[in-house]
Give the backbone structure.
Amino acid sequence: MKRCVYINDDDLSHDIYCDNRISNRKYTVWNFLPKNLWEQFSRFMNQYFLLIACLQLWSLITPVNPASTWGPLILIFAVSATKEAWDDYNRYLSDKKANEKEVWAVRHGVKKHIQAQDIHVGNIVWLRENDEVPCDLVLIGTSDPQGLCYVETAALDGETDLKTRVIPSACMGIDFDLLHKVKGLIECPEPDKDIRRFDANLRLFPPFLDNDVCPITIKNTLLQSCYLRNTEWACGVAVYTGNETKLGMTRGVPEPKLTAVDAMIDKLTGAIFVFQLVVVMVLGVAGNIWKDTEARKLWYVEYPTKGPWYELLVIPLRFELLCSIMIPISIKVSLDLVKGLYAKFIDWDNKMVDQETSTPAHAANTAISEDLGQVEYILTDKTGTLTENQMIFKRCCISGTFYGNEIGDALKDEDLVNAVATRSPDVIHFLTVMAICNTVVPIQRQNGTILYKAQSQDEEALVHAAAGLHMVFVKKNGNVLDINFNASVIQYEVLDTLEFTSDRKRMSVVVKDCQSGKLFLLSKGADEAILPCASTGQQTRTFSEAVEQYSQLGLRTLCLAWRELEEDEYQEWSLMFKEANSALVDRDWRIAEVCQRLEHHLQILGVAAIEDRLQDGVPETIETLRKAGINFWMLTGDKQNTAIQIALSCNFVSPEPKGQLLLINGKTGDEVRQSLERVLLTMRITSSEPKDVAFVIDGWALEIALKHHHKAFMELALLSKTAICCRVTPSQKAQLVELLKSCEYRTLAIGDGGNDVRMIQQAHIGVGISGREGLQAARAADYSIGKFRFLKRLILVHGRYSYNRTAFLSQYSFYKSLLICFIQIFFSLISGVSGTSLFNSVSLMAYNVFYTSVPVLVNVLDKDLSERTVMQHPQILFYCQAGRLLNPSTFAGWFGRSLFHAIVVFVICIHSYAFEKSEMEELSMVVLSGCIWLQAFVVALETNSFTILQHLAIWGNLVAFYVINWIVSALPSSGMYTIMFRLCRQPSYWITMFLIVVAGMGPVLALKYFRYTYRPSKINILRQAERLGGPILSLGNIEPQSRAFEKEVSPLSISQPKSRSPVYEPLLSDSPNAIRRSFGPGAPFDFFQSQSRLSSSYARNCKDN
Amino acid sequence: MNSNNTPSSSAGGPGSAAADSTAPPTTRNSKRPKYSRFTQQELPACKPILTPKWVISAFMLVTVIFIPIGVASLFASHDVVEIIDRYETDCIPEDSRKDKIAYIQSSGDKTCNRILNVTKHMKHPIYVYYQLDNYYQNHRRYVKSRSDQQLRDRDSENDTSACKPEDKTANGSTIVPCGLIAWSLFNDSYSFSRNNQNLSVNKHGISWKSDRDHKFGKDVFPKNFQSGGLIGGKHLNESIPLSEQEDLIVWMRTAALPTFRKLYGKIEVDLVAGDVINVTLQNNYNTYSFNGKKKLVLSTTSWLGGKNDFLGIAYLTVGGLCFFLAMVFTIIYLVKPRRLGDPSYLSWNRNPGGH
């Protein structure tokens, strides 16, 4: 299918595509209520409660007042509907803002200010510098005479450098005044989400030039949400609008996320539901049999001899209603409440506030905090996430002299400063190249400082550094550059720019010194692109060593070189260059070829090392989280080498010999397959060794691997704990997340740019860093944090506590509901299996909603271990990851406990309140207070840390129970008038309560104590240690320090590998035994091994469950 | 003095930037969450752990408290003197025992004489109960079949929707009190004599005062009661308001268990050991169709209520078990001491393969 865009055609018959209205909304005003209700009722629990509520309207079968179910049900629905409505309203507002932005567009041949939403396909849109592109455009004109313009595509692919876009050749040279009169036809594909591809044709209609078809590529487009930079104006034809733009297509609808805990709760709810059905069936049948055999003899019941047709159903339905409280209606409300509070705790956390920008952490999704504690894989972006995304010139090596090695900052190295002061020629040349071999534009600000605008951050860093060394690039006047060096101005004229391409990996400029008239070629580029061009006599060994050394430190390196040109040589070359530049066929290739003719016999000046500084605490964070059993994958759009360097420097992979990197590459399917198989084989061999093996794959190979070797790649993903994927596209990132999700791992994706948005939405948990690349990621994410290091706290503290608390809360909710339900069942056994409720409606409702909810809600303050202990022993997170605290077996424990407690309460009550005391209302209150007393003690026993609020809630709730019941007992109209006063005056009541508490809690306490002391879990041990202040704290203290020390020296003490690249060859060429030998048995790293083993075994356990 | 300096320094512009970055930027940004111990989850907390000392002494404490209470409860229960006479079979003449139901439904005189021997001194007041076994006052059909409004208030006389099938007579007039509970009112009656001297039974104040005052109306009189074809139980005097029909009030307090006692009256004199009491009872109530038992109970009371050994025995048992547990834990603690919180138990501090 093709889409035909008629440029500038106001004929409405061609206007068959959607307008530029962006809509992220889920509802409209009209469909909100039905759609929202439908969505809510698609949840099983809600259907269940609705059914129960409807059944309760039938007074023949209801044991209690229907209001006791309808009230909470309507409340729950209202709350979630309100929340949805509010969210949707906010989406509407942000859409509206984008839609109503004013843009210049051509309407009926006239340039007009219109709202962004009114742009139609085929309209010509004008943009000015720093404007956001409102829809996908095909460029037809720019302010630049050569038809170039610069865009920042960060929002789209996350790359922050400026990209060059060029107008199609057909539009070249159209006069500014005529631009808005251009007519023509663009044939382009149907909208898709591929942001790297756009294959279209353009044909302009007369009077504009030729009738030839002109091909258009992605180079000729401006995509929505990019920004126009360094270009005065540009204009283009809208080809895709609204939600059909490349960005709009990329933007998937985020699915509501369900946490593992929620899934487990749903599963348990299902199990309880089945159990309930069984109970109902058994009791229903028993009830009907009892009715027919016994109840008919009870003349005082007056059973009619012949009942209505539904008679057989009545008793089972009564039991269904009686047992409906087994599934606590309050659990949804309680969970929503506490989840809201978890999110608030994250928002409030002072320790997660980025001091630099004062951005606090924020939980946008309040529903998934527990998942944070169960993360198994973290997929992280590199630039801006692990690094500051701020390039700083750090070291350099000029003609064999290393600067900045001692103090880590060349700018402060006195040797270099002295060399500059003494005008050492090599250093001067080096600085000159730094200052002018670039495409940087200096802008004088009013306060006298200079702002540099650069395509790449590397160039910016170099220019800044040169300025710091008194070689200040002051002004760019057309082609003339002003350099201010030690108060004297030097002028250079740029004659030609040999642009950077990713194939050439270098860029050069030809400049003329305006004073002396000499011509120079200044080059900079990657070492492999520059060093081979060195002049024959020069020794490049020191430079390659410098590069090697800097790479090991995780620095980005650039080689700088220069050559003086002869006038003739240049003139000759210049002609060729011009010719190549105007070539119609294979222009890029020809330019590259011509450039090569000039870039030879270079004199290498030195190596500059630029640091994309790691964010504070990144290595520590990664190390801690890896100790916690979380595996890291790095997904980056960046180059392989840079990615590996960063990975090394932030503990992502360990350097040799501990770590090993396995490369998967290849351009064809076969190559990739072979490479994949080789890596897999190595992985299998080394998986039994305490080795830190990671694989490295680039986007191209990944594409092939995912498409053709899915199974093998899956296996690799399962085997490998660490992976580095470079040059991957946003959708590949999302694919990888999907892959890990399909292996049933809990994934967390963290990123900072628009290119991470899909991955963030795809993962179980998306974390956005509100960083330099804007806020797209932070907006799309479930959590946004200021710095990567806060991830540690987010997971270990907030995630873990949330999981623990929810695990307790949910199981406790079931426990208390089951307790009361079992008592009802027991009571029905002594009331002729007729479905009598022992408790009245008020008590039942209050029991679920009030008496038992309040104390447990305060449980959100419970901390089993202090934050410090958790940070020192991140391994404890395994308990959360493996779901040790909430799974069918722990649930069975709670189930058993509720059954036991129900028996205790019931048996004691019916025996101590027998004979003359067996009055219905009294017994009901005795049993109820027995339950409440047990609840209080169960919560108290399960609480790990008592704050004042917990005491208030637990014991205050007990007091409140009596106060409320006294109040109700004082109302003559209530059924339980005076009951509570009577009971409280009886010694036998208090003696019964005391007996219930001790008989109920004694065995629980004994069992817990025995486990706690003789079969302790790791959590128990740490708690004991924490409380008793044993040696564990000191042990924990020493350990990270020693590790930190080791880490600090490691980059320097790396034994030099033979190859220059820090990527180690796959081990297969060597015999595996050799490696094993190189690894002593007493290696200090068994710590890590044991934990990784543990992790896997826990993971297995979890899966088995 | 300091307070004077602060505003000037905050207005210092770029110069104060350095100071800002070192101090927490509270003044600069309102987005920053406010500090409080609650929001930071740093409320002071006490973190008890289950140490052997604590647990063992808790169990010992329970033992120490429970045994005396158990003994006291048992004594209280044993102090209660109880005379139980099961009469439902004995009160049917030998020749009618084959078809008890026919006998009880017949309209003849069902007087029956019983002799009770007092074996122990009984101090007044002596409570006279009737006990029914296998009688489901808690059956759902039964327990719901009443109208509290009607009982309380004359104006709500027609509020009988819950009372079916005993809500209206065949000709459609309302029954007061309606419902199965009232309809099945117990109608055996007892009169006691000692040494041919009448022992008066006080039937006043046997119901709860709150019921007489607030649940049963002073101006509500029985109407059309037991006038239908099927007679359930006792007839009520239509000239006495419901609030004074104490037998009804007692009966309407439904029992939660199928075995229950209801107060019939009180004997306000002491009974001496060796006394022989003649009971003349009218055996009217039909428990035969469902094999229910009927018992007449004379009982004194204690601070714990009637005779009931359960609490005493339960207390002694639980106390004993706690003592046992305390001993077991002590022995384990002494024989196999285990250091709490020993980091060597952490598997990641152990050598690999430990797990």
User: Anything to note?
Assistant: Residues 790-829 of chain A form the longest helix (40 residues). Chain A touches chain B through 107 residues (CB under 8 Å). The CA atoms of residues 529 and 822 of chain A lie 78 Å apart.
